[in-house]
Amino acid sequence: MLKKVEASDLYQLKxxxxxxxxxxxxxxxxxxxxxxxxxxxxxxxxxxxxxxxxGLRQLTAEGKVSKAFWEDCGHVxxxxxxxxxxxxxxxxYYRISVSGGEAEKAFEIPERVRDIKPIENxxxxxxxxxxxxxxxxxxxxxxxxxxxxxVFDELPFWFNGEGIxxxxxxxxxxxxxxxGDITWICDKDFKVTGTAVCPxxxxxxxxxxxxDKGVFRQQSGIWLYSIKTGETSEILPQGDYNTGALNFWxxxxxxxxxxxxxxxxxxxxxxTPAHMVNIRELPFPDAEVGGGVTSDxxxxxxxxxxxxxxxxxxxxxVRNACHLVRMDKTGKTETxxxxxxxxxxxxxxxxxxxxxxxxxxVPNELYLYDEKTGEEKKxxxxxxxxxxxxxxxxxxxxxxxxxxxxxxxxFVLPPVGYEKGKKYPGILEVHGGPKGIYGEVFNHEMQIxxxxxxxxxxxxxxxxxxxxxxxxxxxGQLGGVDYQGLMEFxxxxxxxxxxxxxxxxxxxxxxxxxxxxxxxxxxxxxxKAACAQRSISDxxxxxxxxxxxxxxxxxxxxxxxxEDFDRVWENSPLKNAPKAKAATLFIQSDEDYRxxxxxxxxxxxxxxxxxxxxxMCLFKGENHNxxxxxxxxxxxxxxxxxxxxxxxxxx
Length: 651
Known about the structure:
The protein is mostly beta strands and 651 residues long. Among the domains are: 111-138 and 150-285, YVTN repeat-like/Quinoprotein amine dehydrogenase (Methylamine Dehydrogenase, Chain H); 393-650, 3-Layer(aba) Sandwich (Rossmann fold), CATH 3.40.50. Strands 31-32-34-33-35-36-37-38 form an eight-stranded mixed beta sheet, sandwiched between helices. The chain starts with 14 loop residues before the first strand and ends with a helix. The model has no long low-confidence stretch (mean pLDDT 95).
């Protein structure tokens, strides 16, 4: 008999990431992470895939591994803090042979390395986090009186997942492992947002921006640094665009630039010769480079774009899935892998694409796609035993047309043990973003709710990714067309699934989904219960307390409180909190600098003071990413709180 999915199953799941072929294409390197209950952290190991024989073998023991890459065909270099005590602010790298044996220390970089790319001959392009703050012993006497305080004089002064960032910078440099020296290639009062190494190894490109009157304004430029001469040339000045996705492409530099006409706008694609400034804009693709289907069952990162055989390959969200596409230099795009689900980190060698895939609604695995034959096959089975022993519900899909003319796709997960003719409570899930997407991938939270006897249903409302700017642009309409689409979807689902108990419904979501949960409880009595996670309730407050508020949220609103106070207040769920009746659970982290705890606290206090059944769970030491990479025990507690809340209020 199959087991039901539970919160504690988190410790049985494996997460794959960072796929990289060896230079000769005979082996592929990837990382496998798992939540570890004993250490309450994540344990990772490097694994190898034999491209000829198809076998898998573990290369390193479990520990804290990251930033792994190939030194040559026979050796891998990786960072770890598991093997010896590392001096604060330093990053230590180890070398291991693919033939086996013990890893040996390769080099130590006296900085906090955030990204590393090999150049040649023991030299590396590194991006390091450095501090521009005055040393404590040089501060004025009055600043030495207390030590437990922070000084803020920049925006942003904190950032989600990074903590206090005031006076910190991400700076690029060339590290020489033979001497241990770093040659900085940009001013230290600079924030690097992306780098790329030219295939000829003679130059590197970097994107980023400088502080402007105490504010990082998100308009980034691009520069080219010559390794041979040490000279820097400007490709695109800082000023009008946010840039990204740097990739050298057969003598040219590819990049995206975005004037952010609205939050979540898709960028234009550009090419310029690497030796001169002659920017050519490709036909507007109306799509991002990179993407991913929302899931709480992934960990780690990896490549989202790569130049290969004259094409630029990239992951891209398309409707309800993440595909792999390729583009030539005219802007012509072809779909390479277009199945439902998701294509994650990938690499290509001789027409063979290895990628971390989310297929058939089960946890991720490593897949191999052959461009010549079109065959896709699963080549790993890290989660097979879990899938074979647990009752995982697959989504049922339908489409319908909203009154605004847009067609939406709906997904429904029936409860475990579903019997037709019997009534079951239902839960509407709303994704974050709003420029995220849901699709046919494994979501642990949803599976737990199904195992508890709930129908779970979800869609991708206006504002989401994968359908172009016209669909994504809901500037100044938060709680309008998006809310309308979600409510129409709910009614359509109830019509198609009469066994959902209309008297026992709930809504649940995080971030933008948390905004929508707060909005719904104040604008409809359709839902008897709700769960608002890392939520937004007050747009008079949110833009001025969070890391992205001053440039992202104000643009979302298309106004400011001092320009149109009434409109901003009208867009705030807190305004309608006195009308809320639904029993609401608030899930919040005390280091969430993306959706600061004040919003959840205000909504909780406004509702609780009026007698509404509410519960606030404030997780200590966690941030906006609690559901995805928080401490394992806190993730289990979060899942349990949600399931128990709905059990108690819908059954």
